[in-house]
Fold these 2 entries.
Entry 1:
Amino acid sequence: MSETMLLIPGRSNKQGTSLNKGKLKEEYLEVTSTVEMNEDDMQRLQLEDGDRVRLSNSIGEFTASCKKKKSKDLPEGMIFIAYGPSSSRLMESDTGGSGMPISKNIEVEVEKVAA
Amino acid sequence: MSDNIKTVKNATCTFCGCVCDDMELTVDLDAKRITKAKNACVLGRAWFAEHTIQDGPAAMIDGKEVTLEEAIEEAAQVLTSAKFPITYGLSDTTCEAQRQAVAITDFIRGSIDTTTSVCHGPSGLAFQGVGESTMTLGEVKNRADFIMYWGGNPAESHPRHFTRYTVTPKGMFTPNGKKDRTVVLVDVRKTPSTPVADIFLQVKPGKDFELAWAMRALVKGHKVDSSIENETGVSLEVLEDLVQRMKNCNYGVLFMGMGLTMTRGRHFNSGAIMALAADLNEFTHFVAKPVRGHGNVTGADNVVSWQTGYPFGVNFSKGYPRFNPGEFTTVDTLSRCDADAALIIASDPAANFPQAAINHLGSIPVVSFDTKETATSKLAHVAFRTSTYGINTGGTVYRMDDVPITLRPAFESPFPSDEDILTPLRKRVQEIVIGKSKAKGAGAGVTRAASPVK
Amino acid sequence: MSTSTRILNGKVYDPINKVDGEIKDICIKDGKIVESVGDDATRIDAAGMVIMPGGVDIHCHIAGPKVNLARKLQPEDHRHDPHPGTPFTRSGSGGTVPSTFATGYRYATLGYTTAMEAAVTPIGARHTLEELHDTPVIDKGFYVLLGNNIFLQQLLKEGRKEEFKHAIAWWINSTKAFTTKLVNPGGDEPWKGKKNSNVSDIDEKPNSNDISPRQIIEAFIEAVNELGLPHPPHIHCNNLGHSGNYKTTLETMRTAGDRRAHLAHIQFHSYAGELGKNPTSAAREIADYINKHPNISCDVGQVMFGKSTIMTADAPLAYMLRGIAKGKWVNADTECESGCGIVPFSYQEHVYVHALQWAIGLELFLLSEDPWRIILSTDHPNGGSFMNYPKLIKLLMDSSFRKEELSRANQKAVNKTLLPDLEREYTLNEIAIITRAGPAKCLGLNNKGHLGPGADADITIYDDQADKEIMFNAPRYVFKSGTPIISNHEFCQDHDGRLLHVAPAYDETIVDTVRPFFEDYYSIEFDNYAVDDSYLHDHEIIPVRN
Ligand code: SF4
Ligand SMILES: [Zn+2]
């Protein structure tokens, strides 16, 4: 079962502090490969905190563990991830003549990865 | 902890664009580390705590340790023999180093681009289209009674923005701090910044332009249809109330986050916000400003602009600067496989760029400058390990509002600064270029400086 | 290599030393002009050429925060006018707001070797110094904006004149400035704090407890005089650009009494007529006052037809022009210190107001009796680029050319001025005064603007040509501090130039007076504010008068 959702990469405190320790260090890699999802979305996809999901689009894919967010904080159909190597994998290289690849509100397919 | 302790007052944190210059650092000189950073936020504390000295070579070629001289020579050869060399990064180093980097790129006739192109580059383009009514952050502290953040989460990206500059400080005409201000946040989701806001607007993803444009219409007294709610997620009633507040305030500010520039609409979104702020000056004093990310990305914009006339995405292949975002910006030069050598300074495109760009970067000779090992330094042909600006080296950094600040380094690093390497590299590059032009018999490259008109 | 040079057979114009077109040798040693040099000196034959000291621009906008905003704002301004590099000079881009390198090289290609950036916020001093370091060849300095400084105004309100003076000196030292600049004094607070309004009268007090522009102007003239700065306060009067503003200008000059004052771009302040209606010329009234008052100097701020960029600390003015230009607009507020506005602009011959402005500038040049106190400027890039100077010189030297140009401009406008009847033609000697000797004197630069022994060897050698625009557009040789920069019309060497600044003495306890205000209302730390010596490239402190 997969669904189309919107991925929003952004900054977070943890991403910022772990970045200072080193971008090749465990902590940063973990922070940047955890996604936050709406609780109803997770229920529908039969996901629990810590389960693995695969996010993919025509550019690439990555897997991440997921974390529940209340509906009032994160609307349905939206996924948040701290910027990093994972989110870059789904970024298109075409910048539409601007120099800036679309890096927020990226359409992705989300599916549960069997444990 | 040793007894060899010193404190550095009024030091500057360069982790984010807030560039807070009120740090009081406690430094253990024997251990070569900062043990305490008074006044720093959680990100700043991590910045100071984690920049310790780690053993490792200052220069490597293909992963093997070499002397600095050998590495500089190799870098100069790589850059001067390339047909389409590119320079990229620069937002986490001093203006002094940035000036050398632009000079190198000028002499090798390459492209110069900074991380601006993938953060507020679109706002730079919008600025060229509509201009901007703007201010230094002290004006916000002293005067602003209406503050709106659009598409940003400063609580996590710029933790002291609210407390040091905008929302809480007490200023000349805002003696009660937050009580004297209305704070509005626009975002697609609730974030840790949301609680600060008196009014929160949850805009539908990708509908920022529509929302801003409807507000412009209301400011100008045009009618807006109630279907705007369906379109943007914000009701007409809320918008009308908001626009009234904006027109009636004494000094209004719009802060732009990357939620505007990185999504559908890009420079149109920033342009709509800048135009909205400009329009509001018919009624009151109104300003806008992008909230810039990296410590000295604003310095990079300034240096590249004063040296070339353009802020980023500049190419020197014709012997003079040309500006064309989408052509000379780094994501494009890499993913189109144009670049045949890269000078990457204080940035990690090998981790942050789209895959096609990363792939190409891996296939060309790269010269990298980093304070720690990164994905980019790992794939570099020539890799320099440099000291950290603001911690080990002095120099100049521009805050997000173009205010320049001099750094006060805390302790010495065994590694050279970016400028320490870029300066001899620039000299060597220039030597090679002059040599080549003499060999071509181009009259030592003299061009006509002044010829009679007509 | 010999560091001495002898220039022979040239016709020398050196008004300070009363040399008016004599054939005379000029000798250079170690960067200075000397009486004579040995036989081993490099010899340059300047037969058929005109020798002048290097040009000195007393008022232009070439570096710092507002200039860089204007650069960033206008890619279209640069694209049509690239400035190629060479293996030993940097490339850049031109237009009305050139990149720093292009600015320095282009001044050199006109024979100018000194230029003063006329408006810098104190908090932007560091930025300006970095840009000036990247501005090659010319010597340069800047004027620091203090006329809307909130703390200084507080001192004045409280009648603390002595501390006011020391605070000015502290600010100059802390920024490495050359003198003080007042722009629309008293106008910032109404602009930023009162919904974009402005002061409109020199005696207006926006609030009952405020001080008037006149009080600010008077206090600065007095304090700067006491400090003995080589150049007096550099004043951009209130009401710039408004019809009828000449009265404000006259009042500003009267405020000086018999003390020195410099009025910037006075053309923009010489308009008669009724507020809100089309202006007419008040050049006669202004010129008369200046002719009779040797304490007043001014630069003209000539308007030249074509592209310009309005950039000014007079933010309300830029806002007004935004309504006219209808294009992009920049406003930039600086905490506690200044406003700023930028508007891309273009002056057109057929437009009444533009043609009138053009004519008034020329009237002022031609009506003024003492060339030493009326200095050539376009308020670059406000009235047009400094690259227009050769054409402006031709307009002044060649009355038939002037008539031709006049016939193309809006006739209704030019006929409201005296210009059609003015036959005067400037001589080469007078041109040497208004572009070199005069500005050097006004600035108190004793080693500039002349070719006597001890002067800096900043020298320009032009081919003596009938067409003065061609002549002044292309010097055959330019020396900077004795170094040949242009030789036979070609760049042959690069040069950094020097920063010129002043360092008046002050009572150090003033720091404790400024600090509490600063800590309350600025957004950077007080101890990080003053600019240290690391921002000076090669520099010279111009001594104060005692
Ligand atoms: S807000 Fe930014 S600059 Fe200030 S301490 Fe935190 S990370 Fe450093
Ligand atoms: Zn000016």
Note: Residues C 59, 61, 118-119, 264-265, 379, 382 surround zinc ion (ligand 2) (CB under 6 Å).
Entry 2:
Amino acid sequence: MNPALSIKQFLNDMRRQKLRTMLTMFGIFWGTCAIVLLFAFGKGMTEAQLKSQKGLGENIGIFWPGITSREYKGLASGRRIRPSEDDVLLIKSKATTLARISPEYSRWNVPMKYGKNTTIRNVVGVWPEFSQMRNLIPDYGSRFLNETDMAAKRRVVFIGNRLKDDLFGDEEAVGETVLINGVPFTVIGVMKTKRQDSSYNGRDARKAFIPSSTFKTMYSRRYLNDFVAQCKPELTMEIARQEIFEILGAKYRFDPTDEEALAVWDITKGFAFLKTFFLAFRMFLLGIGIATLITGGIGVSNIMNVVLEERTKEIGIKMALGARKSHILTQFVFETLLITGVGGIFGFLFAYTVVSVFPMFNLEDYVGIPTVDIWGGVGVVLLLGIVGLVAGVFPARRAANLQPVQALKLF
Amino acid sequence: MQSIMKLRQVRKAYTTGTVTFEALRGINLMVNRGEFIAVVGPSGSGKSTLMNIMGCLDIPTSGEYRFENQLVNSLSPNQLADIRNRKVGFVFQAFNLLPYATTYENVEIPLLFAKVSGRKRKQRITELLARLGLADKAANKPTELSGGEMQRVAIARALANEPDVILADEPTGNLDSASGAEIVNIFRELWQSGKTVIVISHDVSIAEHAERIVRLKDGLIETNGDLSREQPASGTDNQSLS
Ligand SMILES: Nc1ncnc2c1ncn2[C@@H]1O[C@H](COP(=O)(O)OP(=O)(O)OP(=O)(O)O)[C@@H](O)[C@H]1O
Ligand SMILES: [Mg+2]
């Protein structure tokens, strides 16, 4: 059919049904807008959550001393299992499931001093691997602890960004000397600001990190506070945990299946939960959006039925002039797609604008940055197409199946 | 002479609820190429029903209808649509123009369904509008035209794909006598140019121009013959027609 004539006819119908068309288009507009926005914000929030989860580290587990809960090979239950740095070395040499591991000594309420500024913070002694595992990224112009620091038991320190602010304010910290428990340490690095919403022993931003060898000498410690292990990316932390329990179980003679021999925080579990939670959340939002769109679709279908009633005579005329069923069908479907299309495009553009100007409100910390992804867009377009087709096809088929005489008789 | 339409024992029954009404009760009719036929008869006698069947707008309940030797009963909806598009041109009492379309666009519709190219469409429409004295009304919408003009647009539209047959159901019924006469004249010219013309009419002047008059009564053909054979009954005719 002639597109110009089709559009003319469409506009003519729309004029006659102004309010109804506007409401219907608004329904589609709103449905599209809702889906796109819900998706964009859902995604932004999920990503913000995952990112701050990752602030603690990815694929890691934290192991604290524990107490056995079962008898094993003649040994009573209730024994304390306290790993030492040697045990971590043993695990490192034996384990096949791990990517990295590091011991962690920790000391609270340590006085620190730079010039006139003093503060009391947490000092931890770790290996260089700790940096990658726990996402302690050195800021520009600084570095983390390295193997030489370890071997030479250097008095060097890597400080969290907040601690840096407390001691140095706006001044440069790298290369300066701070007193930790009265002992001079050279600052070699400052942590880059990161989002971290879970922690043990406080936030990394306020900690001071020194080589484990230096820590051990300074505070003459035998046992670790904990150690941190990271599994290989293709494996799960649960498998790595089992291997660690087997290695230490053989050494300290506890049952490797005794889950209380060491206290473990497998952070990937929380991660998995969070992912599932947000997936469910997004599905819920999607459901709302789809329901809105379907309501809009019913509106379109309804308006097309009215158009059909009004146009029965015209369909008859066209049939008398030689229109085939397919001509009538395409015209109706075309009109429906036009209504849904226009509503959909405006809905999408509106949502896109909202998402684009959103960063201006600085609400990132609360809801993350909403983003519209290509697949979301493609999905919405497909969905709209389906809604449009379903809404248009039924009235269209009714129109096309009219007998020419029936249609003509109705005037 | 060669026949173009052949009806044998054609019946048409309408069922409304439980009541079945036979509008046509066994019509036998042969239409030759190039004939000018007037269909007359009292209201409700089945004239429009017969016309719709002959124009493939409707199909008989039983009996045989052949259009150019094709058995219409057995054609698919698309084949019927194509016959309506190319082989017959319809003219209605109520004009049946599309209200939002201009004269030009109304005449264009059958050409669009026939997939005629843009250039040819333009040429054909210009030619038709000139022939029907509508050249200066091409951009007008139906509401801006007089009754006679609207009916001329409808005739131009019926002629768009150069059909062999023109079917008209009371084409002058909504017109004053002057415009009516004009339309009658057009039909006469069409017939003279070789078209087969079948007109339903209460209008005596059309019947006067026709070669043959088919008179229906209660769904049956009462008389079927040329004017000379009609003459003896013309007195009663004029009463019923006026
Ligand atoms: N769709 C229909 N359903 C039921 N009955 C119908 C239908 N169409 C026509 N009829 C009946 O069939 C009969 C013939 O109708 P038709 O329209 O052919 O008459 P007509 O001769 O054209 O009359 P008029 O001169 O008034 O136009 C009428 O009695 C009419 O009531
Ligand atoms: Mg009639």
Note: Residues 177-192 of chain B form the longest helix (16 residues).
